[in-house]
Amino acid sequence: MKKRTILLIGLAAALIGAWGCGKKTLPSAAADAVGMSAERLSRVHEVIKEAIARKELPGAVLLVARKGKVVLREAYGESQWVPEHKPMAAGMIFDLASVTKPVATATSILLLAERGRISLWDRVKMHVPEFAPYVDDWGQSGDDARIWNLLTHTSGLPPYTDAAEAGKKLGSPCATEALVKYIAVLKKTNAPGAEFHYSCLGYITMAHIVKKVSGLSIDAFAEQNIFKPLKMNHTLYKPAPKYPGLCVPTQVVDGKPLIGVVHDPLARLQGGVSGNAGLFSTADDLALFSQMILGKGEWDGVRILAPLTVERMTSIYPRAPYAGRGLGWDLSSVYASNGGDLFGPRSFGHSGYTGTSLWIDPETETVVVFLTNSVHPEDKGEIVPLRSRVANVVAGSIIKK
User: Fold this and answer.
1) Peptide bond before 345: cis, by omega within 30 degrees of 0?
2) Which of 1, 51, 173, 342 could tie 271 with a disulfide, CB 3.0–4.6 Å?
């Protein structure tokens, strides 16, 4: 068993090394070259290592970039505890969970809006005729939810639905279209635009809208229009067949850790491709995406989004200021603690249930990619406080604008 483990680790390391030769990454620089204190930034190592020692997570990868330059790229701890211990490597592939929402789904929806294929004011039922309205206690139906309601989590859809129960009715795996019809008739929590309730179901619905309008599933559309142009060569859905040795395991399910198989139950129900979760990526690829966002939709001569689109996505949406959300991105909702306490009000990001986090501050041109698998092996890890502390150390290391 030990020989096999060593062989697998060696093979993974070789694959990471060979892969690194051809992949696109941001250039590196010393911290002081971009107005950061290397000494202050180094405090983050102890913060993360202490959390690992407390068994709050098996390991992590942290990437910090400023002004388009990577100043820190570090792997910590182990990628796996069960069934055997394996070290973490900086180039490993993580299950992003809900970071899928802004990176794949919201960006795809906004691209369709830019192209005139949809309007964010479209009623959801224009694309999903079964989408039922909110009905109050007196039996009165409310207004129709719009696509912008789905993007800002103000549609009235509940946060989630039981995947096992849905699978009994729809089959497992099931088509996204069938699941969206199932979601569409669920009882709404409130009238659209009245309240903020973070909902995976709205993003599953938008993935279906992407396919219905473009003819491409969300994975194919995002690959063709976002990841391939940016050379995010290791950002994809269902990576297990292609990169089995590079994927970081998540929770143990039915006696085996999920490796390259999405953790989210509703995404698994759909065969691994969904609008709420299912995307896998590396710290370096997310840094490329983040730099495109900081570049107002463009990076390295490649334009993905228009500047006005990026502004809309990353600013509090005026029709729902109480939500603290942009169009896909989180600025100041109750889920935004991964941004810490020190970055300014224009900063934004998103986190994922598996332990992933991305935070971007346009004011200081700073990116913090913090990827962990805190749900490994038994979904008992604790990551929320650590995310905030990591962001604070990074922000506290910026000493010059």
Assistant:
1) no
2) 173
